[in-house]
Design brief:
The protein is mostly helical. The protein has a domain of 47 residues. It is 61% helix and 1% strand.
Length: 283
């Protein structure tokens, strides 16, 4: 049984602190009790905090407060990119970040960042009652421009073709029911129309009629055309960054925000393309 450890490089103490950190145990009082119980080491809470600080072991609250915003979002985006279907919640993303980097971020921060980065996937996760609450929150934050007109009796125009709706590939050749339990990307238009309140306009049968050949051809052609236009610029930017990483200088706030938006857009584009490829492989 060991009394009080005073050497800062004590291998037993350092190994124990590392083990607790990897397990996500960051409370100094709990660590002090575990050291005494498992290793016979008597170390007060203040000394535990001081030793952990010297070893670079920080809890999620401290890291979340002190780490730069773009660096934190990059950690989250890296984990979200591994989950193209958007099924992982904040707890699994938190564990993935720690497993890959050894960095703790608070679950509340991760949850809010995921909601901002991919609100559609966020609204689909969790129990049914949580999904409803999240959809209502998204409706409050992002209403259709014509929603206020519909409240006063003006009928909201309905697109004549499915191409005018934000429906993603692939589209089934029959009538597509908008089901929030489906694995397809959720179309918020019907919910936004119903959430706008009572209206004198006639009720709408929320169904999207599609023609198999025309719809697939239109969406595929538009998607391929956009990719053909964007890929040369994306490739040129990637090569430019590869050649200039060592010569970067400080940038102003506007440029810094532009870099952050570019990073977020690139990560989300990767997830969207992965979804399209996954669905095409299944069709």
């Amino acid at each position: 049984m060991r009394a009080v450890v005073t050497l800062p490089d004590d291998p037993t103490l350092n190994a124990a602190l590392k083990k607790y950190h990897l397990k996500g145990i960051n409370d100094s009082t709990e660590i002090s009790k575990l050291l005494l119980k498992e290793h016979g080491i008597t170390l007060c809470e203040t000394s535990v905090t001081r030793r952990r600080k010297k070893l670079g072991y920080r809890a999620g609250g401290y890291t979340t407060k002190t780490m730069e915003e773009d660096a934190k979002k990059k950690l989250i985006l890296d984990q979200m990119a591994k989950d193209p279907k958007g099924r992982l919640g904040a707890r699994m993303i938190k564990e993935g970040i720690f497993k890959d980097t050894g960095i703790h971020l608070t679950r509340d921060y991760i949850r809010e960042a995921m909601r901002q980065l991919d609100p559609e996937a966020y609204s689909k996760r969790g129990p049914r009652h949580m999904k409803a609450q999240r959809r209502e929150r998204l409706l409050r934050e992002a209403r259709l421009p014509g929603a206020s007109e519909e409240r006063h009796g003006a009928q909201q125009p309905v697109p004549s073709t499915s191409r005018e709706l934000p429906v993603h590939l692939p589209i089934p050749p029959q009538i597509m029911e908008l089901d929030n339990e489906s694995d397809f990307d959720h179309d918020p238009l019907p919910e936004l129309l119903s959430a706008a309140g009572p209206s004198s306009a006639p009720s709408l049968d929320i169904r999207v009629w599609t023609h198999p050949t025309e719809t697939h051809t239109a969406f595929t052609s538009e998607m391929v055309g956009l990719l053909q236009d964007a890929l040369p610029k994306m490739t040129a930017l990637s090569r430019f960054l590869d050649n200039t990483e060592t010569g970067l200088a400080a940038v102003d706030i506007h440029s810094h925000q532009l870099l952050l938006r570019g990073m977020e857009t690139a990560a989300l584009l990767e997830r969207q393309l992965a979804r399209v490829i996954s669905r095409l492989d299944k069709s």
